[in-house]
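Annotated sample (chain length 103).
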Amino acid sequence: MTINTTVSEEHKTVTIDISGQFNASMHREFRNAYKDSVENPASYKFIINLARADYMDSSALGMLLLLKEHVCNESDNIVITQANPTIRDILEIAKFDTMFTLD
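Output written by the structure step:
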């Protein structure tokens, strides 16, 4: 399980790529991926790329809510992308498709 963060000042994006199991063991690493990545997070789009994630639990949902809070509750600034069908189902059952953009 790894997290890689890429910041594009030009495009005003922060891309967080998650590999493996997105669960409680990633809490600190996920928080660090966005916490100090940019000075004004509300002015950036955060892209959570789950293309290489194979599992997500309820603690990961909580981490996404903390990210939302970090960007001043601007859900339009957060895009969750490339989730596999199982993870997408989890997001939809939890109604995260109403709080975030699922791509």
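Annotation: The helical segments are 27-35, 58-70, 85-93.
Annotation: Residues 2-102 form a domain with the Transcription Regulator spoIIAA fold (CATH 3.30.750.24).
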